[in-house]
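Worked Example 4.2. Consider the chain below.
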Amino acid sequence: MKRREKRLVRQAEALIPTPWGNFRMGAYAEDSEDWMPHLALVSEHCDLNAPVLTRLHSECITGDLFGSKRCDCGAQLAYALGKAAKEGGIVLYLRQEGRGIGIINKLKAYNLQDMGFNTIDANLHLGLEADVRKYDIAIEMLEDLGVSEINLLTNNPDKIEAFDNASVKVIKRIPIIIEPNADNREYLRIKQEFMGHLLG
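Applying the procedure from the previous section yields the following structure tokens:
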């Protein structure tokens, strides 16, 4: 994987008590004026001497913040935070809204989906790629945290592949299965059949 020339820096961190447990939240950006840093939530029980349960979660403001049922992102984030709190894990919150296309384009894609486009074709119709997320930023963050081995909480084969030849090694994959609903069933089918997500 081609690595970025500039490095992320942990600009600030603080203790964040949550409904799931206590986490140290670190904000990562190239400079301290960045208003949208990537975030690392590290459980107070994290043990760096063992493979660390780790979730790479890309921002989804509609699902994470407003509870949208069009996707499973909010439910995945809540599940990951609960599991990380219980097992001493880490959740990396990556500011890659809408698979990297941003909230404005994501809302435009939603309108196309309401017209019959699937999630991939909607992006392509807008002149965008289906998924433009990068995960080298996650590896940088884990390196800074002193993590060398992880148990990766994911269904996405791209996230697993991102760690090929990286300094951080994936020891095993742990599935994250969320029960579908009427609003996201088609979305999940596209992820499984066309993007290779391991949904069982």
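The chain has a mean pLDDT of 88. The domain at 18-94+133-195 is CATH 3.40.50.10990 (Rossmann fold). Compare this with Example 4.1 before moving on.
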